[in-house]
Amino acid sequence: MRAETSSRAPLPPGVFLRAEGLVKKFGDFVAVNGVTFDVPRGKVFGFLGPNGSGKSTTIRMLAGLLNPTSGTARGFDGLDVTDTERWKSRLGYMSQKFSLYLDLTVEENLRFFGRVYGLAGLRLDERIRELSGTLRFERLKDTLTESLSTGMRQRVALAAALLHEPLLLFLDEPTGGVDPKGRRLFWELIYDLAAEKGMTVLVTTHYMDEAEQCDELAFILNGDLIAHGEPHALKRGISGRLLEVDLESAPFEALAAVRGAAPLEDAYLFGLRLRVLAREGRVDDALSLVSRLGTPAVAEPSLEDVFVDLARGYAERKAAAQPPTRMVTT
Amino acid sequence: MIEARGLEKRFGAHAALRGVDLRIAEGELFALIGPDGAGKTTFFRLVAGLITPTAGTLRRAEGATFGLVPQRFSLYEDLTVDENLDLRARLYSVPSAEARARAAELLRRVGMAPFGARLAGALSGGMKQKLALVAALLTKPRLLLLDEPTTGVDPVSRREFWLVLNELHHEGLTIVVSTPYMDEAEYATRLGFLDEGKLLAVGTRDEVLAAFPRPILEVLSPDRNGVRRRLAGLDGVDDVSLFGTRLHLRGAAGTGTEILDSVRAGLTGLVPADGVRLVPPTLEDVFVLAGDEVET
To answer: What is the pLDDT of residue B294?
Structure first.
């Protein structure tokens, strides 16, 4: 094994987990391509990217569930991910496909998972009572898991991941398939865990409005980490100026009227709002263009704008680095 | 195009749909929204004739052929895009020359022309959904049913998907689509809000919003959780929800002016007075309220 003297220095106190050059290959396919980032202590860290971008593979490596092809992770004040058993005993993991037993009641499920984590007796009773209160499913303890809604199952699965009082919680698309109301409630719970219990949370999602709730974010695309930082800093990084027009009706017609116009980097709909990203130096042209459709206002970019902007820049860099093989010179 | 009368569907003791009356006219783009387990998927399955009603009736217009994009990707991941479409055409006895021309045209339309030889399993989430759409359209249906087609799809693909749906709508196709994204529901000609098997509201977006019975205050603050904690239990406010970078406070009654001052006072030092204002409700507010009323 290679000596890694430089990386053996202790992590700074504000850093709870560090991913160091994580790579995962499945055969020829590079799922995760050398990802490095820090997860701050006691914060909610969002890991964002579309389906198939390498989010879940990264989180599984960080949770000690999958061995990296190369690279490592350190955290929990002095542990290394290769110290698998101790590493795993300190974390909770909940995935998009919660692994609850549908033919058991809520309480039976929690007892089962508690015993897996080595809890028993009064301690286990107490944890189940606490969590069913905090996560608001007390009255459903004797209900068959099968008859719960997805949102409720998700809260039970979260309880199962929290039974052994982990210091770090990994949530892999925890709100997939959950409706807006359930998603919002879930995020309030996550925030309280971080704020009140000092727990560090690493969560993956493809819902950009959820990402707004995170203290820090990393974006991954095709296995590459394309940006990392606090939400407001990422928003400041957008080139150009975002304008928004409230439309009364016919949104697609309004979009068609401006799409592809030279002063605009991008134009899209968000419900009955038209949003356009004006190119740098073309804000006035963009304003007069969209004024025909309504009264434009300068809008704060959303993380969806950040994502689209980053994805565009990434595609351009890729194209520049790898010219198409059949390019014709004229 | 579709008419449901007293439509009920029970699975054992569980009532998935409990008396739904709904008419969807030819040429509509109808959005079905509602929490998980509300009965949306059951409704699609009933319309598609995959299951039969326990009570009530469900009728499709005479000759209303349909295509269904189910919630879960149901094409063969170990076949290529072209092979999947070819198989689908054979299953529905679409003559092969016609099927090939139509598949090529549809793939071009959704921006997938270069991907015919790719394995379906190797497509991105957004492309899988576009392929499912193409497969559903292969038989030239008059009615298109889509059960959460954009869930989990990246933002750019989601936009592209809706551009195509809008085009199809303008060509006269009747479309019924369910979605967890309220911005998408705004593109529909009408929407229906389903909850615990009951249709709680039906109408245009404006009609549904006009019927919303509560005032909404919006709070802008970088410390959204600080605000949430400060306002918990404030008189006259019965919900505080995070809406992306904003918070929405829902008044228990009235027009909202009654609580504006107490909310501002409650947030002194944290949010300036002009960071709190009355706003019209959004579809998300409708959604959150319905969820609360059911939970109690």
So the answer is: 54
C-alpha R_g of chain A: 23
pLDDT at residue B113 in the model: 94
Domain B213-280 has CATH 3.40.5: no
- Structure-token pair, residue A11: 């992590």
Rounded to a whole number of angstroms, the distance between the first and last alpha carbons of chain A is 52
The arrangement of strands across the sheet holding B246-251 comes to B237-243, B246-251, B216-220, B276-279
> Domains in chain A, start-ordered, CATH in brackets?
8-232 (3.40.50.300), 239-300 (3.30.70.100)
- Write out pLDDT tens, residues A78-126: 999 999 999 999 999 998 676 789 899 999 999 999 998 889 999 999 9
| Whether B182 and A180 lie within 8 Å, measured CB to CB | yes
Rounded Cα distance, B237 and B249, in Å: 7
The answer to whether A143 contacts chain B (CB < 8 Å) is no
- Chain A residues inside the 8 Å CB shell of B183: 269-271
How far is B186 from chain A, CA to nearest CA, in Å? 5
In the three-class reduction of DSSP (H, G, I as helix; E, B as strand; rest coil), residue A193 is classed as helix
pLDDT digits (tens, 9 = 90+) for A208-257: 888 888 999 999 988 999 999 999 899 998 878 899 999 988 899 999 99
Q: 10 Å Cβ neighbour count for A285?
A: 15
Any alpha helices (H) in chain A, and if so which ranges? 55-62, 84-89, 106-116, 121-134, 150-162, 180-197, 208-211, 231-236, 251-258, 283-291, 303-321
Query: Which residue of B205, B222, B288 is in closest CB contact with A180?
Result: B288
| Closest residue in B to A213 (Cα–Cα) | B244
In terms of average pLDDT, the best of A139-143, A147-151, A173-177 is A139-143
Residues whose CB is less than 8 angstroms from the CB of residue A224 and which lie 6 or more positions away in sequence, other chains included: A33, A34, A35, A314
* pLDDT higher than 60, residue A28: yes
Assign domain B2-209 to a CATH class. Answer: alpha beta
A308 to B155: CB separation less than 8 angstroms, yes or no:
yes
B78-97 burial: b if 16+ Cβ within 10 Å, else e: eebbbbbbbebbeeeebeee
Q: Which of B225, B248, B287 to mutate to test the interface with A (most CBs of A within 10 A)?
A: B225
Residues of chain B in contact with residue A212, where contact means CB-CB under 8 angstroms, are 244-245
The residue extents of the domains of chain B are 2-209, 213-280
Residue A206: the pLDDT is 78
B152 DSSP assignment: T
pLDDT at A322: 63
